[in-house]
Design goal:
By secondary structure, the protein is of the alpha+beta class. It has three domains: about 10-120, Orthogonal Bundle (Butyryl-Coa Dehydrogenase, subunit A, domain 1), CATH 1.10.540; about 125-230, Butyryl-CoA Dehydrogenase, subunit A, domain 2 (Beta Barrel); about 235-380, Butyryl-CoA Dehydrogenase, subunit A, domain 3, CATH 1.20.140.10. The chain contains eleven helices and ten strands. The strands form three sheets. A four-stranded mixed beta sheet has the order 1-4-5-8. A four-stranded antiparallel beta sheet has the order 2-3-7-6. Helix 3 packs across helix 7 (about 235-270), helix 4 packs antiparallel against helix 5 (about 105-115) and helix 4 (about 80-100) packs antiparallel against helix 7. The longest helix is centred in the middle third of the chain and has 37 residues, at about 235-270. The protein starts with 7 loop residues before the first helix and ends with a helix.
Amino acid sequence: MTALQFTETHEMIRNTAREFARDVIAPTAVERDITGEFPHEIIKQLGDLGFMGMMVSEEWGGSGLDTVSYVIAMEEISKVDASVGVVMSVNNSLVCWALENFGTDEQKERFLRPLATGQKIGAFCLSEPGAGSDATQQATFAVQQNGSWVINGAKNWITNGTTSSIYLVFAQTDREKRHKGITCFIVEEGMEGFERGKKEDKMGIRSSDTCSLSFTNVKVPHATHVLGEVGRGFNIAMSVLNGGRIGIASQALGIAQGAFEAAVKYSKERKAFDRPIADLQAIQFKLAEMSVKIEAARLLILKAATMKDRHENIIKAAAEAKLFASKIAVEVALEAIQVHGGYGYVREYLVERFLRDAKITEIYEGTSEVQHIVIAREVIKAA
C-alpha cells in the first residue's frame, strides 16, 4: 500500500467485512443494544472468516494479514455495530498480539491457536478499581509457591469478561520495584478461586460484555502460565496497548462513518421548506465538516497502521490516531443527531446509538487525557 492505494487483498477484506456486517450483524444490532445480549453466534462466524486472529501468523491459526487489513475490517464492522467491533478488537489487538509476540511456542499452541481461530475468546486484564489511567498502581499481587504463582486481587472494566476462556492478568510480583515488578499471567476459565462478576449495564456498546473479576488464591503454574519474563508485565502491557489504540481508533472511525452515512441519507429524504434538507446550506456545512473530520481520522489511522507493519515506533502515531478518531466520533455522532432533529433522539433512527457507543472510545485503552500526555512526551523527547 502506498499513501492512498489499497491492495486487492485490502479491498477483498473491506468487501467481506462490509457484506458480513450488513447481512449478519445489522439484523440483530438494535435488539442486542436493547437487551445487552452478547453476539455469540456472530463472533463464532467472525472466527470462521478469520477475523478474530487477523494479524496472527498462519502458523498459529491466524490469517497472517497486515495491520491495514485489520483496521479496514474494524471500521466496517464497527460502522454497523461497535459492540461487535470491540470484542474483535480486544481479541486481535491485545490478547492475540501479546501471546504471539511474548509467548512461548507451547503457549501459542495451547492458547493462541484457539483464540486466533475464534474457538475461544480472550480478555486483557489490566484496569483495577484503584489503577485505571495509572496502571503502575497494581494492587493485584502474586506470590510464588512450589513452582506455581498464587494470585489475589480484583480487576474491573474487563471487556469480554464473562465470555472469555483465556485471560491475560497483570499482577505485582515485587512491590518494591513498582511497575518493574509487574508480571503478566495467563488465567483460564474455571480455575479455582477465579470468579467473574455480573455484566455491567453500560450506556453504550451494550451488546459487548464488561465485568469485574476477582482472584482468591488462584494458582497458576510458573512454567506454562507466565507470559514473557517475570517483572516485565508492565512493558508487555504498554507495548500491547500501543497497537490496541489503533484498533480502538478504527472502531471510533467506524462509528463516525456510520453516523455520517445515516445523516447524509436522512438529509436527502427529509423535506423542509418544500425541498430536501440536503439542499440547505446549514445542513451542507455540517455534512462537509463531518466528512473532513472522518477523512483526517482515517489517514491518521492508516499512517499508524502502516508504521506498525513496518515495525516502526508507533507510540505517538497510535496515540494521535486514537485521540483524534475518538474525538471526532463523538462530534460526528452529535451532528448526525442534529441533522435528524427530533427523530435523532429516538431509537428508531439509530443515530442516538452511535453517540452512546462513541463516548467510550475517549475512555478505554487510555483516556483522551492520557493520549495528550503520551503525545506531548514524545514530541518533547524528539525535539
